[in-house]
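=== Structure Prediction Worksheet ===
Name of assembly: unnamed complex
Input type: mixed (protein and possibly other molecules)
Chain count: two
Listed entries:
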Amino acid sequence: MLDNLTQRLGKVLDRFRGPGRLTPEQVQEGLREVRRALLEADVHFQVAKNFTERVGQRLLGDERIQGVSGAQQVIHAFHQELTALMLGDRPALPKNTRHPMVLLLAGLQGSGKTTTTAKLGLWLRQRQSRKVLLAACDLQRPAAVEQLVTLGKQLELDVYAETPGPGVDAPGVARRALERARSGRYDILLVDSAGRLHVDQPLMEEIAAVAVQVQPDAIYLVLDAMTGQDALESAKAFAERLDLYGIILTKLDGDARGGAALSVREVTGKAVCFAGVGEKASDLEEFHAERLASRILDMGDVVSLVEKAQEAVEEEAAEQDYARLLEGKFSLEDLLKQLRALQKMGPLKKVFGMLPGAGRMSGLLEHMDEKELRRMQAVLLSMTPRERLHPDRLDGSRKRRIARGSGAQVSDVNRLLHSFFAMQKQMKQLSRMLQGGASRKRLMQQLGDPGRMNDLPGGFPGRPGRPKGR
Amino acid sequence: MVFGKLREGLSRTRNRIAHALRRLGGDTSTAQSLEALEEILYTADVGPLAGELLADAEKQLRGGRLAGPKELPEYLRGRLSGLVQGPEGDPLPLRPKGPTVVLIAGVNGSGKTTSVAKLAAWLQRRGNRVLVAAGDTFRAAAVEQLRIWCGRVGVDLVAGAPGADPAAVAHDAAEAALRHAVDVLLVDTAGRLHTQSNLMAELNKIGRVLGRKIEGAPHETLLVLDATTGQNAIQQARRFTQAVPVTGLILAKLDGTAKGGAVLGIGSELKLPVKFVGLGEQLEDLEVFHPGEFVDALLAAPQPA
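=== Predicted Assembly ===
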């Protein structure tokens, strides 16, 4: 995901990396390219324009931080503006609502409303321990009701549905679903609705009528992450006609270029609250603007990675690994351990995509599959524990032995070492940024809260360097 | 057949370039007109290709090959029309003997199932006997959705159990197509994001199974693209063509506000013809693609100013 944009921005930012101050001409020239990179990543035309103007003001205006290098200024400005572009002012779920809480999902055809209704239902039950009722109010698309009923069965979520037919309309179903939610003592009622090709009067009237019946605490707009310019205009039209609470971005697991994610808040005034990141029902996550900004700038998404790791490995072991990692002591032993944990964490690309600098390693990632993972493991296991702890001591003869022992080529061993050293370097940068010894909690706070970025000494550190061996 | 629906109410609209230039006033500078052009191209989802087109337009203007910005609309119309191909002659030619097999693929939510139904209706209108295979065994109730559509069109459907191997459904459908001597077998498939290599392999397998039963099948593999998708559409087309021999595109949801400009990039890069466009929510809303009409619609301003 976002690789394209990341690489394009990376190229521009690389040019800013030279020492010293940036001339206004350099900045303008760079920003023109940034704007084009954004446009080619499907960022809304006006948003791209405004964004580059704001970054330009930061870089050329009085907001410059004294005593910080040009590259750092640029990264800092981009990171802040990207985050600001996506950051919302509300929690993903509304607070202090009535009981049961009512959430209504709206969106265009094919955006993924019905699937998202089920995913969000599962998320609410699993992560929030709420008792959830789904209401099948898409009576337009053939078999949409049946789809939700089937999904409900699969996920063991209760669904209120009526057989579509004469006399059965969406507002009526919604009203009766709410009655059921009350009498059944559900915490949350989630209402699916019908989609249309584009925003039209009947669609808006139907949703408005459903909203009148259930008085939703929040209306979410479900938006396909691969959305182009026009669909963003549709999102705007939704926002103008409905009192939206936030956006749920779907299909963010493809190689969406990120345009919708970057544009939708500025276009609609509402931030992304959740994101669908996979085919599985459990693949719905709370959206974190700051983390996505980091990922776009190829600073990696260490926090998400840690959270993923947490789910996969023992809490305590993770804590230890993490402490080591932060001390900059990242050895091949750790890599081996992590490779093993990785297999439990899901698709490799997804996990590696969260590592800092991964965008630059996309050549490597391209060929990275489960087979490659096993091959890497074989190479690692062909080393002695001592070698794994001191990879710098591997000479040609040892490498040949390792290659033979694992059925690989010396070039494979070298490739693994190159990637490892690149990772190690980034881990060190990260730990320097935290002045060592920081706890995971503190790291999360700092990465999770853009306001704290300013507190770091010397502004924001430079972006991780290009890995060696490329 | 032309984009009747697309042109509906378009008579009062104007070419966006001409409109933008007029708005800028009589003596528009080259820089201004290029800026206007940039907005038009990018907001129509033309994407990276826009940079190239702008550079070319600038060269034409500065080199004096265009008399002035006034000639931009016509110049651009010509350039864009040349980038995308329609079907040459019959978009779905039938084999002289035996069923013609058409495989329909695309990402989730692109409009595959609806396109299958519209295509079935289109074929039936022109007098072909059609059989539909419900190869989307993954999404809950996808078979039901297609069954309802097929009922409306009045064509037969071959379906398997939910979760069944789609290749097995394809196999059964191919046999049924031979048995009933239909003209066309339309095979719907599950939506798959082009980044999921296992699902792309599954699509390939469906094709192979069809080929074992019916010689040369699938004779057409049509990729359904959502016209509201941005530049990701190009990546989808690349990945799908790598996995299966795509013979053409169906541009779905091109309903008048979505411009579908990404298809220009696909046309220029992959030389894939766009065979059909989906223009609405009715069964009849499928038309044969025509590059000139498409470009006119792309450059048309939605409302008279």
